[in-house]
Structure formats: C-alpha cells, structure tokens
Amino acid sequence: MLLPDSFVFTQQNLQDYKDCAYRFYLKEILRLDWPAVESEPIREQEALMLMGTRFHLLCQQYFSGIPADVLSGQITHPELTDWWQNFLNLNLHPTPGSFSVEKLNTIPFGGFRLAAKIDLMLKTDGKIIIYDWKTSQHQPKRQTLLARMQSKVYPFVISNLPASQTVQPESIEMVYWYPAFPQSPVIFAYSSAQNDADQTELELLAAEITSKDKEAFNKTDNTKVCKFCRYRSLCDRGKEAGTSELDEEPADSDAAFIFDFDSI
Ligand code: SF4
Predict the structure, then answer these.
(1) How many angstroms from the chain centroid is the CA of residue 139?
(2) Which of 235, 239, 240 has most ligand 1 atoms within 8 Å of its beta carbon, as the pocket-test mutant?
(3) What's the angle, vertex CA 151, arms to CA 148 and CA 40, rounded to 5?
(4) I want to staple 157 with a disulfide (CB 3.0 to 4.6 A). Which of 51, 116, 136, 252 is the partner?
(5) SS3 of 34, please?
(6) What average pLDDT does range 219-224 have in this prediction?
(7) Measuring from each residue's beta carbon to the nearest atom of ligand 1, which residues come in under 6 Å?
C-alpha cells in the first residue's frame, strides 16, 4: 500500500481522485509541489481568494463573539461589504454550546480517518445544520453540487460522529450558502438511505485507492479537468491556465471550487 498509516481522507483528496487518479498520486502520495496557477486571470483570482479568506475570517470572528458593528467597521472593500451584509441578514445568533465554527471533525474510516472541516455547524431543535460558505463567483447547478464528494463526506462524517449517535440522519441538513447569491442557497436533507449509499461509495473508493499500485493511478481522459490543474505542464496537458468564466458549467473542473477553502 502506498498511503502512509497517518493518511487522512478528505472530501478534497477524494474529489481529486475522482477527477484524476494521477493527480491524487502526485498530490497525496508523492506530495509533489508544482508551481502553476490554477485559473486565469491571475490578479483577479488572487483578489477573490483574498476576499474569500477575509469573509471566512469575519464569520469566524462573529461567532467567537466580536460584535458585528466592530467587524463591519473593518471592511473597506465594497463587494466584501455586500457579502458581509448578506451574511448579517441571515440573522444567525446561535446560543453558546449549540454551534461550532471551522471545526475539524474526524471519524475512523477504512483503516484510516475521514475528516471534514465544517464552516458552521448548528444544533437546533434536535436538528443539525451544516453550513458551507461558498465564496466563488459561480453558482454551479444543484445536481453538480450534490454530486461533489463534499456533499457526501460532510454529512456522512457528522452523522457518524459518536456525539451524533442520538441524531437520525433525517435530522441533518446541509446548506451551501453563497454570499454573492444570498437568495439562492443550495439546501439538501440527509437520510438513512443516503448515509448507507454514501458509506458504500466511500468505502469502495477508499478500498480502490489503498489497493492500487503506482502504475494504476492513471491520468484522466477528460482534458477539460487538466486546464485547471497545477500539474498540467508536468503531464504535458498544456501550459496556460483555464479561464474560470469560460465554462458555462465550471464545476466539471475544479474552477468553481478552487477558492472555497475546503482543501483539508
Ligand atoms: S494535468 Fe490532467 S492528467 Fe495531469 S494530474 Fe492534472 S488532471 Fe491529471
């Protein structure tokens, strides 16, 4: 087996594997750093990445008890101001002990661990609501989002935590909330059937990964994925980065997810 005993599966590395087994091999087994931008235009994407980082930090500070008006006074960027106001309009005021923020949750999984870092988890009236802040400029189609590994891994991890044993999967809900599109969150309810299906899929995937030899981590046939992959020059799949606005459905690649800070 090529994976170290300390390896931790995440939605990001499982998504990498599904997108391209060779990318998983380069990133997770060889741990190969390869300098290349993942999406163009660079300056614009860097600014967006910075704004996404600041938005996540503002939310974290808000839930740690810093008054909203103090945080509002620190924002100078007009678009971030709009995002922040949209967030405040959600009117989230959880009581102490009923929520966690930016928390890394892990469960045993196939001889390793499976981890999910949750932006905000609320426990209210016997329900658990998982929030994920999506600061991308694109809002993928609902079906595309639901097919992502994140939509399987997050609720699966939360429903299988020891602390969730008294909570039925039917009481878990996941919310993808976009500060740039506050009126159209993508919400889906979890279920026992979905939990069973996710368990089967995730375990099969982990078994496939752990049983592979080096030569079996093949490059993807979908070269569209390569446009947004840092290893494209290494793989001889082009030198220029893809332009994130070009694709009507950018979630076919990582473009809509690059700046969502879910990389653990
Ligand atoms: S450039 Fe393409 S083939 Fe190479 S690792 Fe990236 S996605 Fe895989």
Answers:
(1) 14
(2) 235
(3) 45
(4) 116
(5) coil
(6) 94
(7) 20, 22-23, 26, 219-220, 225-226, 229, 231-232, 235, 237
259 is a domain residue = no
- Counting from 1 in the atom list of ligand 1, the atom nearest the Cα of 235 is 4
Query: Is residue 177 assigned to a domain?
Result: yes
CATH number of the CATH domain containing 134: 3.90.320
d(CA 75, CA 49): 16
Residue 226 lies in a domain: yes
What tens digit of pLDDT does each residue of 74-96 get? 999 999 999 999 999 999 999 99
Global pTM exceeds 0.85? yes
Torsion of CA 90, 65, 131, 75, to 10 degrees: 70
> Which is nearest to 77 in space by CA: 57, 55, 46, 45?
55
Q: Residue 76 falls within a domain, yes or no?
A: yes
User: Residue 128 is part of which domain span?
Assistant: 8-252
190 to each of 130, 175, 240, how far by Cα in Å? 11, 11, 40
How far, in Å, are 130, 229, 237 from residue 243 at the CA level? 31, 12, 15
Cis before 185 (ω within 30): no
Structure confidence at residue 174 (pLDDT): 98
- In the chain, how many domains are there? 1
